[in-house]
Structure formats: structure tokens, C-alpha cells
Amino acid sequence: MVPQVETERLILRGYGREDYPAFAEIWRDERVVAPLGVAPLGEDEAWGRFCRYVGHWELLGFGTWAVTEKQSGAIVGEMGLFDFRRDLGPAYAGDPEQGWLMSVAAQGQGYATEAAHAALAWGERHFAAFNPFCIISPENAPSLRVAAKVGYRETTRTLFKGAAAIILRLAR
Fold first, then answer.
1. What are the CB-based long-range contacts (under 8 Å, 24+) for 90-96?
2. What would the DSSP string read from start to end of 2-25?
3. Contact between 82 and 56 (Cβ < 8 Å)
4. Can you tell me the distance from the alpha carbon of 53 to that of 62, in angstroms, rounded to the nearest whole number?
5. Is the pLDDT of residue 104 over 90?
6. Residue 145 C-beta-side C-alpha neighbours within 13 Å
7. What is the reported pLDDT for 162?
8. How far apart, in Å, do the first and last CA atoms of the chain sit?
9. What's the confidence (pLDDT) of residue 161?
């Protein structure tokens, strides 16, 4: 069972099968995914990612939430604490990675920051040792701003899958 987390304006909840069309629409939007350094997802890739998100909660007890507006009920993005087993070395092995993605319509409204704070608070309560990190492209200024607002600080610059990346840790 995926826990529900509420903020002033948002509900973070698990994905249900009925959420797939909204999920796929967000991941098909080049304006949304380009800052991540990935191409828009085709049907098979979107479905595979969607299933991975659902399975993550089942296998690990944490994962990615659908971010919905309280007022409209619409899915506006996603927020997660996950373990995608990225090959980043022993300094990051076993620690949750935090990531977020917001639809174009939801960008610039503070939703990512609000949801990130809520996910971090949940993580503090549910992990015995909570030392999250995130990976962001140096060109992704909006995500770097969100990371800074919630307390992440740069630790390393590296190449990840052939592209420049900044690894950040939550400052304590």
C-alpha cells in the first residue's frame, strides 16, 4: 500500500491503472523531459516506467508518488524517493535518490518544492538511515533551484550515461 502524503495544495499518492494516460502524456512532452536529458517516451517505454514505479513500492516500500492538485484532482507531476540501482559507486549505494517531474502547466508554481519537502519529511520518518541524493543536469536550472530550496548541496560533478551531471546530497 502506497502511503498518501498531503501538503497545503497537493496530494502525493500511489499510481493506479487509471492514471496511466496522464502519466504517459507528461512523459511524452518534450518540454518536460528535455531538461532530464531524455527523449519523450514512446508507449512501450512509458508503460515500462509506469510499471516500474508501481512495482518499486511493492518491492522496496518506497517509490514515486503521483502528485495531484487538491483542488482539481489532476495529476500535475511526480515525486519520488527510489533506488534505480544507478552505477554511481559505493558512496551512493543503498541511499534513496530523490527525483521529480512536473507537467508544463504545473511548472513555476512551487509544486515541485512543496512536494519535495513532503517527500523528504516522509523519508525522515520511514528510513532508519536517511541520506538522500539527487542527480541533475547542469543545464536544468529549475531542478537545481528546487534542490537548493529543499536543502541539497552539490557534492560531485560527473558523467552519467555520457552526459554531464551534478550529484547533490541533502545538507544536514
1. 92/133, 92/167, 95/131, 95/132, 95/133, 96/62, 96/123, 96/127, 96/130, 96/132, 96/133
2. PPPEE-SSEEEE---GGGHHHHHH
3. yes
4. 9
5. yes
6. 11
7. 87
8. 30
9. 87
Smallest Cα–Cα separation from 165: which of 155, 84, 77, 41? 155
Pairing of strands 5-6, 133-136: unpaired
Q: Position of cell 517516451? A: 41
Residue 87 pLDDT grade (very low, low, confident, very high; cuts 50, 70, 90): confident
Cell numbers for 52: 516500474
Quick one: cell of 164? 554531464
**CA dihedral of 171, 154, 88, 65, whole degrees rounded to 10:** 60
Q: What is the number of other CB atoms lying within 10 angstroms of the CB of residue 76? A: 24
Q: DSSP character for 37?
A: T
Q: Which of 20, 32, 168, 18 is nearest to 108 (CA)?
A: 32
In this prediction the pTM is 0.95
pLDDT mean over 79-105: 94
Q: Residue 146: which of 136, 156, 158 has the closest Cα?
A: 136
